[in-house]
Amino acid sequence: MRFRVAASLAAVAATVLALLAPASASASATSAPGAVPKTVVLDGNRLALTRLLTKAGVPALRSELKTLTTAADGYLTQGPWSVMDKPQTAPSGDKHDYISEAPYWWPTQPLTASNPWGCPYVQKDGVRNPAIDTITDHAERGQLFNAVYDLTLAWYYTGKPAYAQRAALDLRTWFVDPATRMNPSLNYTQFIPCKVDGRGIGIIDFSQQFTDVLDAAAILDTGAPGWTSADRTGLTTWDSQFLTWMQTTKNGADEAAATNNHGSFFDMQEAALALATGQKSLAKTIVQTAETKRLDVQLAADGSQPLELARTTSYHYSNFNLLALTRLAQIGQHLGVDLWHYRTPSGGNLLKSVDFMVPAATGAAAWTYPELNFQAFSANDVIRAAADQGDLTAIRAVPELSAQPGGDIWLLRPAAEQLDPIGS
């Protein structure tokens, strides 16, 4: 049913958007609330059409809008968040630097005055160390990204100013205000006590969800109350500086060289940042290069992802990597690059890899690879993304998917989002 609704939206999009275009083209971004947003992952035209259908009271959208606004209402009284909230300071001595601790590393000795971290540390793949939560940057970053995305979408679909005003405050506090802003770098992410101050692998703290923020900003640019030209300029400057940091530092080079999901997320974030900052040619090159650099390396002929199946949480990581690749494919659609149907020399294909997840996601067959915490719903969004591309296996699977925790808002934000809580 949900796919039929999505297909119907796509079928009437051309007609409705033809009516939208004259008004959108003649109005500025600051004077035309509801105009087509220049998003980098989400399809702005589809969002604009969905907004019209939501305003018209289409029944299929009512429950999703209620789910979205309920979440957004909760964020109206939370935050704003800042890297300045944490009790710790980065090795740089600057509290504006974001820091986070590697999730799967554990102390081997009791914590004492002479050994406050319990060093040396050892790795336990897939087993998260709860002590990392004493550093608040990681958790607050996640809350911020979720809040901004939900608040912005809620404003776009309802027009209620409070949602946009709160999203603007949250973004301004974390990225723009000199007193509270985060430095545009990730030098101290996923550090390991007594071992290393920061690692390129920690860039995934941002890349797994920062594209939501880029899309939210593009939506706010369509005329959101409380979102000023100074805010837009400040965030764009931050984005540009962060992209430069990614491309010119050892941490960035290390993450770009990763062959598994870390490399996929790096490319997704880099391409999105390039597109968001007006560097369309660079963004297109990144997506095109991913055909051979990512898909050829990661996708087997049978649809499996061997690099992710090697993990102790292989179902999670197979879906996690597909999240990055399907979102990268959506970025490619803005640039005229079709990752969805690219076929690797071995016969691998992105849609085939999504299909590989369907039996376990629908309960038709057991997942036979290592998995410490199987959660069937982890595959829901990537399957819906493939269904939107016309993949028959995915289309048939959609009605059989397990319930989405917190409710389903696919029609309002049709792009894969990671829901299960396992770290990276």
From TrEMBL:
Sections of the chain in a coiled coil:
none
InterPro entries listed in its UniProt record: Alginate_lyase_dom, Chondroitin_lyas
Phylogenetic classification of the source organism: Bacteria, Bacillati, Actinomycetota, Actinomycetes, Kitasatosporales
Q: Which SUPFAM superfamilies match?
A: Chondroitin AC/alginate lyase
The organism named in the record is Streptacidiphilus alkalitolerans
One Pfam family recorded for the sequence: Alginate_lyase
Domain Alginate lyase: residue ranges:
82-367
**Signal peptide (residue range):** 1-27
Taxonomy, superkingdom: Bacteria
Q: Does the keyword Metal-binding apply?
A: no
Keywords attached to this Swiss-Prot or TrEMBL record, sorted alphabetically, are: Lyase, Signal
What's this protein's name? Alginate lyase family protein
Select a single GO molecular function from the record's annotations and give it: lyase activity
